[in-house]
Amino acid sequence: TVLFDLDGTLIDSGAMILASMRHAAETVLERRIPDEELMAAVGGPGLVAQMRALDPERVDELVRVYREHNEPLHAELQACEGILDVLPLLRRRGVRLGIVTAKRLATVRLAFEVISDLEPYFDVVVGSDETERHKPHPEPILLALERLGAVPEDAAYVGDSPFDVQAAKAAGVHAVAVTWGRIHDEERLAREEPDAIVHTAEELVAAL
Fold it and tell me: Could you report the per-residue pLDDT of 96-114, keeping only the tens digit for each?
């Protein structure tokens, strides 16, 4: 069983996330926040927590403005390079595939509508609105495994953020960090000591 993060792992969404974070901060808070600060929590506990870190008094407004800006950008969304070649290869090998993401299921649906080749490969999708606790807590990964009838020791979680590696380790699955998302740098990923760090989809197949 191989579970994937979505943003920066399957879909090339880092630039549009950053653009929407900038837009929300500048529109609601009327100030420029360094990109590193805006993106520090991306891939972790979810959008509400990210916005709470920017301003706990204006979370709802920040989330609303972010989503209004972000959702139309999905029209230009593309899969990460090589991913649509890797998924059928894994399926032919008998690997069951799933997605565990900090996005809501409604937003995952937007991605599937644009990249229609993506959805058929996945047997389970766990979004942020399905668990009380979020990455780096292992609950979302464990829920996906439960739905598949799989066990941690036979599974891997592939993601592009330090929170993905932390969640994988907490769940007891093989932790694979990918660098192509460009949301978090390789040095930050390496500090979490994943089982593997890969730079291309071809390397990912070898790591699994």
Answer: 999 999 999 999 999 999 9
